[in-house]
Structure formats: structure tokens, C-alpha cells
Amino acid sequence: MLAYVFKRLLALIPIIIGLTIIVFLMIALIPGGTAVAILGPLASPDAVAKLNAELGLDRPLVEQYLSWMGNLLQGDMGRSYSLKRPVIDEVFERFYATSILAGTSLILCSIFGLLAGIVSAVRQFGWGDRLVTFFVLIGISTPSFWLGLLLIMLFAVEWQIFPPSGMYLAYGGGGILDLLDHLVLPAVTLAVGATGVIARLTRTAMLEVLRQDYIRTARAKGLTERRVIYRHAFKSALVTVIPLIGVQAGLVIGGAVYIETVFQWPGIGRMLVGAISTRDILLVQGGVLLLAVTYVLINLAADIVQTILDPRLKS
Question: Cα(4)–Cα(25) distance, rounded to whole angstroms?
Fold first, then answer.
């Protein structure tokens, strides 16, 4: 298993290099150039030329990329023009908040999606299956930003159960209970759509496994239905579902961009929206690169867990 993990880590190197190339070109190929994007369309040619020289943008593209990669390997992503601080400091500070929100949402959608899929498969064509399918379809079809606004209106404004925005109270608070209180609404909003997708695939995987001969044999041996489902069927179905959870992690991270804006959550998503509006290109570059690498690492973890559940996948 260690050899397999090492091999997968080596395979990540060209993927991450490819990500850096894409992110770099995304910024380098902005119409008008990065300097114009930073200074604005009304900037004088002298100011643009001065900033290009300062950032090294007057050099060939390949040389710019190699220089940028060299700085990146040393932990230097450049300096934010709007915040007047190193990009890497701002990005990792915001990543802490995003990881809490996205991580909680991923845990919620995984638990409830798996449970809903199992219930739906075990109660196929019954009321349990129909009820789960109904709520799953609503969850998948509901836009997350609209659901977030609805939850704020109901639970924050109308019933005043949870706070409407932020990560902590502006005055006082700051403890774990304060964080959890603010986390409920954005985490649930972000998890709803992914929960539906995971539930549907879990149902399909469970139904396929429950038709297998070894499941009938386990029942014939007198094993309880609970043990057949959770000890045998679910373990086999989970091998199919784990990669989807990794894919949903990317959707959760991507969804955090607008959910953080709706709930004023101080994470990378909200930072990117602000950086785009202020044309802080280097900050956008750093944030997008960190989110992309995080998604790749989560999928690596999902592949490793899948291989642990089914060692035959190593071959």
C-alpha cells in the first residue's frame, strides 16, 4: 500500500505542474495585460510600462513562468496590491475559514447522502424510497444561493435561531459555540445539493450489490438483515461511492465562492470575489491555485480510501 501511495504522489507532480501552467496563463493572457488589469483601463502608458517592468511582465512568457514557479517554490506568491500584504499570508488565512465550511459541508453531505441512499435502496418502491427521492430531487434542483437566502430569511430574520452572516460575533464570542452557531446555515446550504447526488448514486450502487449471489448466500446462512446490509452490501457499494464523494468535494469547494458571499463568510471564495472586483490579479491567482491543489489532494485521498476498501484496484 505504501508503494501504491508513493506512486500516486509521483503521478501528482505533472498534474500540479499542469495546474500552475493553467493558472499562470489564465492571468498572463488577460486582454490588455496584467498591468492594465491592475491599474485600470485609464492608466497612462508610462504607469503600465513601469508596473510591467516591476512585475517582470516585459520578459518572454516562458521566462515569466519559470520565475513565478521559482518564487512559488520558495513560498512567494507576490504581493496583493489592494491589501498591501503578501498574497500567501492572505490566502492561507482565508483558507482556514474555507476549510472549516467546506469540510463541514462535505462531512454532512457524505453522512446524510449515504444514509438516504441506503434507506432508499432497502425500501425500494416503498414510502421510504419515495420520500427520499422526493427530497433528493428538490435538493438537487434548488439553486444553492437561493436556498441560502431562504434559510437566512427563515432562520435568521423570521425565527432568529441562527445568525445571518459572518464567522463569529462582531462583538464578543469567538469560541467554538459561536463558530458552530454561525456555521450551521452556510454548511447546510452548501451540503444540500451534494447530498442529493451522493444519495442517488448510493441507492444505485446498493441495489446492484443487493442483487449479487453472495448477498443471497449471506441471507441463506441466517445472518440478520442489518448485518447483511451494513457489513456486506454497504461495504461493497462504498467502493463505488467513494470516488463520487471526491468529485463532490470539488463542487463543494467551488460552491463556497458564492455561498461565502451570501453569508459573508471570511473565506477564499469571498476573498476571490473581492479580488476580482478590485482587479487584484495576483490575489486571484494565489486563491485559485490553492483551491485547485486542494481539490487534487482530496481526490488522491478518495482514491487511496477506495483502494484500501478494495485492494484489487491497485493492479
Answer: 32
Burial tier of 285 (Cβ tally within 10 Å: 0-12, 13-18, 19+): buried
Q: Residue 116: exposed, middle, or buried by beta-carbon count in 10 A (0-12, 13-18, 19+)?
A: buried
**H or E stretch covering 239:** helix 234-263
Does this model's pTM top 0.70? My answer is yes
Length of the chain: 315
Distance between CA atoms of residues 177 and 179, nearest Å: 5
The string of pLDDT tens digits covering residues 160-208 is 999 998 898 877 667 888 999 999 999 999 999 999 999 999 999 999 9
Q: What is the mean pLDDT of residues 117-132?
A: 89
Collect all residues with Cβ–Cβ distance below 8 Å to 277 and sequence separation of at least 6. none
- Cell 464567522, residue located: 167
Measured distance CA(172)–CA(178) in Å, rounded: 9
Higher pLDDT, 50 or 28: 50
Beta bridge partners of 80: 85
Choose among 232, 248, 256, 250: nearest CA to 293.
250
Q: Tell me: pLDDT of 33 over 80.
A: no
Q: What is the mean pLDDT of the chain?
A: 86
Question: pLDDT tens digit string along 285-310?
Answer: 899 899 888 888 888 888 888 888 77
Residues 6+ apart with CB under 8 A from 267: 94, 95, 97, 98, 101, 256, 260
